[in-house]
Amino acid sequence: MTTEQSPALDNLLTESRSFPPSPEFAAAANATADWYTEADADREAFWAKQAERLHWDTTWTQVVDWSDAPFAKWFVGGKLNVAYNCVDRHVEAGHGDQTAIHWVGEPGDTRDITYAQLKDDVSKAANALTSLGVTAGDRVAIQLQMIPEAIVAMLACARIGALHNVVFGGFSPSALRQRVDDAEAKVVVTSDGQYRRGKAAPMKANVDEALEGAASVEKLIVVRRTGSDLEGDVPWVEGRDVWWDELVEAQSADHEPEAFDSEHPLYILYTSGTTGKPKGILHTSGGYLTQAAYTHNAVFDHKPGEDVYWCTADIGWVTGHSYIVYGPLANRATQVVYEGTPNTPHEGRHWEIIQNYKVSIYYTAPTLIRTFMKWGAEIPAGYDLSSLRLLGSVGEPINPEAWMWFREHIGSGNCPIVDTWWQTETGAIMISPLPGVTHAKPGSAQQPLPGISAKVVDDAGTPVGNGGGGYLVLDKPWPAMLRGIWGDDQRFKDTYWSRFSDQGYYFAGDGAKYDNDGDIWLLGRVDDVMNVSGHRISTTEVESALVSHPTVAEAAVVGASDATTGQGIVAFVILRGDAAQAGDEAIQDLRNHVAKEIGPIAKPRQIMVVPELPKTRSGKIMRRLLRDVAENREVGDVTTLADSTVMDQISKGLSSGS
Ligand code: 6R9
């Protein structure tokens, strides 16, 4: 009998490429290697220093109070106004004329908004909300596309101490209703319609359906966006509905920001997770803004007044909260905000925007990078991307091949790439290379940022050694950490703190490993880990092996129950244009390629060629739906899919024998 315990996660792929920062970049970088030593020597002093990036009306008396763990308090006793920090103070410091937002509408209309204008807009919107009876602590739900009013509405809430609860523009009436009810939102903000792939589609009609009989909602504010481009009248509920422009324009641009406690709630953002009702993740003010500002400065090497920053996320995702609204604006960024899809009206739209606005920092998601790869490198090659000096990625593990493509075809081979690991729950970036310091490795998020502590542990909670795989945990509190799940303290404890309760670790739900240098590699959600003949295999490693084959554009793998091996690996792949009609031989070739790259144990039992993969609005592959297909079950809940027809396309393609 063997006494050797099998590892929590096998380590299969190895990567030997590494890219040091250029001496020029390193010389001018915001972050230095000393930050690690400084933070290790005295974490609290380090965070206290980061909090000085903000304006505090009252200084805190204690950096962190962890006595009621897992409920943290940061910068105890401090008072600040988050919106003042993101807007007014820059105007007061003489930067009112600096562009805060270069907004680009999908149809081609544009708006440039300075910090001075933003201050007026936010002040008016704050007065408008107050006029509707919204007070500190109330909840305001926002379902808007990427238009400036989305940012203004969020900041207006922050300014008066109301919590925003942003819901993705494309979410169904029932998904919106669930979030409005759970948060008991008093006011909802939406628009008449939205432009999607060149067409105006109704938005308010959806919201009306969602709000039918919603007990908490008193007012619905409607931003005019599509106007007469939208067919038919905008339905109107007298007494409840009010146009944004009529309401907000009538307000004074003077508004005195009130200082709120550092722990005053800032927002709720719902994460769907795989099962159960969505969790309302609660974030508060001082610690959240401190870490958002610190990470935006350190990880993106952002230089106010010089850089043009673009984060392509949607405001409905936490990335839009921390890296479009709070971090960049607290740091006086000039940023691009784009309303539309990346292929409207053509597949070079992002590159055209980068060229026009001389974007220098570009932060996007692996799903989009893989899509750009599929469209072909000749598209970005047609634009001048020489303004770019740093690239970032978030949302999923970035496959080494996608990383290399990003570096070569978008970053001209000389931009540092930051692969940033974090979650809605962590509020801000936790694990990432430090540009100018770290020798970057394609596919690895590498190290916890200075001030952050993370570990990879085994089933018993003991850290694994280099080369070992297991579970990612966060073993020390951090300023932007969630303060709970809205209305459900028990679920908060059960979900994140019970798995390693002996050690008091936060369990992130992700698998990870250390490589031989001690760098961290994220390996996907542990719920998705496949167990093949006792080997615990991560989805990420098999997918990366598939994507490294020249014919594969995208891949998703799942473990499907298997009579002999426990689970068998079933792969769903999207092939590149010219390979799309792959026959049996090509499929065999792919299976062998995986076996060669990472070993025979990971060879997929079956590979299915599909036209699309099911993804959430933030671009994450929903493997549980693919597992339903692989195990011949009826497909489960699809309400949070970006495109609800994808599962039909997949099933249809498979039953017609592809
Ligand atoms: C910011 C965000 C969180 C989950 C997280 C992990 C995955 C995010 C990643 C990554 C590998 C990265 N994830 N960034 N995995 N490398 N750089 O995405 O928040 O939507 O809450 O998702 O996304 O699985 O646990 P959220």
UniProtKB/TrEMBL annotation:
Q: Which GO terms describe its biological process?
A: acetyl-CoA biosynthetic process from acetate
Q: This protein's superkingdom?
A: Bacteria
Per UniProt, residues of the AMP-dependent synthetase/ligase domain are 93-486
InterPro entries reported for this sequence = Ac_CoA_lig, ACAS_N, AMP-bd_C, AMP-bd_C_sf, AMP-binding_CS, AMP-dep_synth/lig_dom, ANL_N_sf
Which EC numbers does the record give? 6.2.1.1
Binding positions for CoA per the UniProt entry: R196, R197, G198, K199, T319, N343, S533
Task: Tell me the keywords, alphabetical order.
Answer: Acetylation, ATP-binding, Ligase, Magnesium, Metal-binding, Nucleotide-binding
Which Gene Ontology cellular-component terms appear in the entry?
A: cytosol
* Binding-site list for Mg(2+): V547, H549, V552
Question: Could you tell me which PROSITE patterns the record lists for this protein?
Answer: AMP_BINDING
> What range(s) does the AMP-binding enzyme C-terminal domain occupy?
541-620
Q: Which residues carry this modification: N6-acetyllysine?
A: K620
Q: Where is this region: Disordered?
A: 1-20
Task: Report whether Acetylation shows up as a keyword of the record.
Answer: yes
Record-annotated residues binding ATP?
G395, E396, P397, D419, T420, W421, W422, Q423, T424, D510, R525, R536
Reported modifications of this chain = Acetylated. Deacetylation by the SIR2-homolog deacetylase activates the enzyme.
Q: Which intervals carry biased composition (Polar residues)?
A: 1-19
- Give yes or no: UniProt keyword Ion transport: no
Q: Name the coenzymes or cofactors required.
A: Mg(2+)
Mention one GO molecular function.
metal ion binding
Q: Which SUPFAM superfamilies match?
A: Acetyl-CoA synthetase-like
Q: What's this protein's function?
A: Catalyzes the conversion of acetate into acetyl-CoA (AcCoA), an essential intermediate at the junction of anabolic and catabolic pathways. AcsA undergoes a two-step reaction. In the first half reaction, AcsA combines acetate with ATP to form acetyl-adenylate (AcAMP) intermediate. In the second half reaction, it can then transfer the acetyl group from AcAMP to the sulfhydryl group of CoA, forming the product AcCoA.
Q: What is this protein's name?
A: Acetyl-coenzyme A synthetase
Task: Give the gene name.
Answer: acsA
